[in-house]
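Internal ticket - ligand job 282, zinc ion:
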Amino acid sequence: MTDHSSLHGSWSRFSLCVWLLITAAVFGCATSSPHITGLPARHSVKADQLLVMTDFKMTEDDPLILELKELREEVSQTLDVPMENRRVVVYLFSNENDYATYMNGAYPDLPPRRAFFIGSPAELAVYAFNGNQVRVDLRHEYTHGLLHAGLKAVPLWLDEGIAEYFEVTGRDPQRVNVEHAQRLSTAVQNGWRPDLRRLESLEDVAEMHRLDYQESWAWVHFLLHESPDTQMLLINYLRDLRENPDPGSLADRIEAEMPYASERLLSYVSGFFMPHATAASL
Ligand SMILES: [Zn+2]
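stdout (structure tokens):
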């Protein structure tokens, strides 16, 4: 995420956000920041723990609202993360210009991105605008909100990997992010190899580059789809994160329980575009 190209730039859907957790101390300052002005406030729609604020009319049966309601259940069922009541507020701007103006004023240090999730002790907030990528953007950011509502903490790479996983729209049970799969496939041909420990060492979203998002997505996809055992490994880790913000390294657990995990991931990624494999579901 070091590219600071414009909102219209070449950063497409995988670089949707900067995840930012504001600490209690910083939040103390944030209360007097210019959050109040410029936020969409004319209309609100509530759905479960979701609250969408807009300046344009939106109803409870809007397809976007229904999709996010469904997403909440999908995330909970897939990951066994409890459905919490903690509110996730989506500030959905009418257009890109209003959104960019607000974000530049309220968060001048953040790079331009199409959408953000910003979590603080007081509020789990999503900022986005009603553009042609809004579905994907909100699926991604709302997933961050759901994770942070249900867990004590989420390692950065895992947070992004899971958000990338659930941003995929449609009914494909394989949930293949075609762009990620294609780019990883090319990377493998060029000698790229997975390294979960390196991903785990990334603590700042600014350190996460395009390939890191793709690798994060690949590990999550691999763990959820490779076998019931790998799925349970991830679910158990997330279960620990419900109570313990620092349950240790997932890479350690994978290494202990899955011999040759990196090699298996590599072969898994390479198989996405095998003619006999998942091509039909892409
Ligand atoms: Zn994200």
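Auto-summary: The radius of gyration is 19 Å. The chain has a mean pLDDT of 85.
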